[in-house]
Amino acid sequence: MTCDARRTAVRNTLARNRAQALLVSDPVNVRYLTGFESSNAFLLIATEGAALFTDFRYRDAAEELARRQGLETVIITKGLARAVAGWCRAHGIRRAAFEDHHLTVASFRLLRTKARGIAWLPAAVPVASIRAVKDAAELRAIRRAVTVAEDAFRSIPPRAWVGLTELEAAEMLEERMRAAARRHGWHADRAFSSIVAAGANASMPHHTPSAARIRAGTLLKIDWGARVDGYCSDITRTLYLGRPDRRFKSIYATVLEAQRAAIKAVKPGVRLKDVDAAARTVIARAGHGECFGHGTGHGIGMQVHEGIAVNARSGDEAKPGMVFTIEPGIYVPGWGGIRVEDMVVVTRTGVRVLTRLAK
Fold first, then answer.
1. Which residues contact 96 (CB under 8 A, 6 or more apart)?
2. CATH tag, 3-128
3. CATH architecture group of domain 136-353
C-alpha cells in the first residue's frame, strides 16, 4: 500500500472521527503516512489535501518528498500551533481530530489557544488501527527482521554463552545481528535493548542485563529482535545450559503447550482476548496461574509494541494481515522464568508462524 493509499485510508476515518481533518503528531505515524522521518514533523490530513509541517533544517527534504506525493509543505517559523491554525483557516477546517495518545497537554492547550474557532477532538479511530494490518511490503520487511534475528542466534553455539556476563552476552547477540544483516546485504540494528537473564534473574520478565555471570547448569532466558527496513522482530527463547532438571522440563513443557494452544486459537474474527485465554488456561491448569502476569502478546511492526494487544482486556479481533507475538511465560521468584515467544501473521484462513527458530 502506497503512502497515498494510507492517507486515503485515514481520510475514510474522518467521518467516524466527526472531523474534517486529522493532525498527526506521532513521528512513527508521520513516517508511515509519508515516508518522511525527522525530529520535527507533523502531518495534517484533510478531506481535500494534506500538509507536511516541519522546520528549516528539513525544508529541502520535505519539499522534495511533498512534490513527489502531492503534499503541501509548511515551514514552521512561529510555532506549530500558529502554522496549523493558519492552514486550517485557509482551508475552511472547523473541526479537527488530534492524536491524544501522543500530543502533550501543553501542546494541545497552545493549539487550542492559537487556533480559536476550531474544535479539536481526540481521534476515535487512530492511525494505529490502519497500521495494524500489514501489506505485502511490510510483511517482507518483517520477514527480513526475523531472518536477521534468527541467523544471529543460530550463529552462537550454546557453550558460547557460558562464562559471559549478561551484558556481554547481549552485546554479542546484537553484534551478530548486524553481521547477519551484512551477509544478506541489508542494514539492521537491534529493535530494542536485548534481554539476557540467567538463573534467578529470569524470574523478571523484562530483566535488565547485568554483570552477573552466565554459568553452566542454569537456565538462560534471551529476548531479542532486529530492525530492518524500519520494521521489527521480537523473539524469546529459554535455554538450559547443561542437563535440565525435572522442574525445568515440567515448566518448559507447560509454557510450550500454552503457546501452541494460543497459536491454534488464532484465526480471522477471533477475539484476541480469547487467544490470551487459550494460553492462560493451560498455565492455570498446571498450577502456575499466578506466575503468568503479563499479556500473551502484542502487535509488532514499525514499533516493537504497537496497536493491538493479546491480553485479557483486549477489545481487538484478528484480521488478515495482523502481525503479533505469542509469548506466554511462567516466572518463579528465586528460581527463574521461562518464556517462549514467536511472531505470527493472521491469514485469510488461519495463522502462519513467521519465526522458524527451534524451540
1. 19, 20, 21, 22, 23, 44, 88, 118, 119, 120, 121
2. 3.40.350.10
3. Alpha-Beta Complex (3.90)
Q: What is the mean pLDDT of residues 94-119?
A: 92
How far is residue 275's CA from residue 267's CA, in Å, rounded to a whole number? 9
Contact, 341 vs 234, CB < 8 A? yes
Identity (one letter) of the amino acid at 269? G
- Whether this prediction's pTM lies above 0.90 is answered by yes
pLDDT at 1 over 90: no
Answer yes or no: are the C-beta atoms of 13 and 125 closer than 8 Å: yes
Indicate the DSSP class of residue 142: H
* pLDDT of the residue at 274: 98
| Contact by Cβ (8 Å): 296, 326 | yes
Q: Please, which residues have CB within 8 angstroms of residue 335's CB and are 6 or more apart in sequence?
A: 200, 203, 247
| The pLDDT value given to residue 116 | 85
C-alpha cell at 125: 479511530
* Residue 15 pLDDT grade (very low, low, confident, very high; cuts 50, 70, 90): very high
Rounded to whole angstroms, the Cα distance separating 230 from 306 reads 13
The DSSP code sequence of 333-354 is: TTTEEEE-BEEEEE-SSSEEE-
Write b or e for each residue in 208-226: b if 16 or more Cβ atoms lie within 10 A of its Cβ, otherwise e: ebeebebeeebbbbbbbbb
Identify residue 184 by its one-letter amino acid code: H
Number of neighbours of residue 168 by Cβ within 10 angstroms: 16
The pLDDT-based confidence of 256 (bands split at 50, 70, 90) is very high
- Domain layout of the chain by residue ranges: 3-128, 136-353
The residue-averaged pLDDT of 77-99 equals: 94
